[in-house]
Amino acid sequence: MTVSPDPRSLDQRLDALARQPFRARFRLRGPERVTAEEKGAATIRWHAYDLVAKRLAPAEPYKDGKQTPYRGHPVFVAQHATATCCRSCLLRWHGIPKGRQLSRAEHLYVVEVICRWIERELTHGAGETSGGD
């Protein structure tokens, strides 16, 4: 697994994830979209870094597999869409092992995946309605 992917390989991974029915249903809508637009990329990146540090980076995250809400912040939605929501998904989709703390490079990689998904949603999903789910 390449921890610091080039944008093209990152987009290819996100495209592959988007073909999975469960992952494909996540879109940036409603309050989460508004938050992402209003806060801006730099603030959302900081939030992603902080949330990953608290909820995903530890060797044994609290409530692993259930620690990421489905709504309430654009990063949460992005984590489910990108399979960066728990350590099992990180292992399966990104090759990052369980049972040890994320390295700094892995932590930054996860943040990059999340932020790239949000960026793509804001750019390519701009024409979609923000109606309910």
Descriptive overview:
The protein is mostly helical and 133 residues long. It is built from 7 helices and no strands. It has helices at 7-18, 21-24, 30-39, 41-55, 74-81, 87-94, 104-124. Helix 4 crosses helix 7 (104-124) and helix 5 (74-81) crosses helix 7 (104-124). It is globular. Mean pLDDT is 90; it is low at 127-133.
Topology:
Elements: H1 7-18, H2 21-24, H3 30-39, H4 41-55, H5 74-81, H6 87-94, H7 104-124
Query: What coarse outline follows from CA principal-axis ratios?
Result: globular
Number of strands: 0
Structural classification: mainly alpha
Binned strand content = under 5%
Uncertain ranges: 127-133
Distinct helical segment count: 7
Distance between the termini: 34 Å
What fraction, in percent, of the residue positions are helical? 55-70%
For the sheet with most strands, the description reads: none
Mean pLDDT: 90
> What's the helix-strand series?
HHHHHHH
Radius of gyration: 14 Å
Structural descriptors:
about 130 residues, mainly alpha, about 0% strand
Summed up:
The chain has helices at residues 7-18, 21-24, 30-39, 41-55, 74-81, 87-94, 104-124. The protein has 133 residues and is an all-alpha fold. The protein has seven helices and no strands.
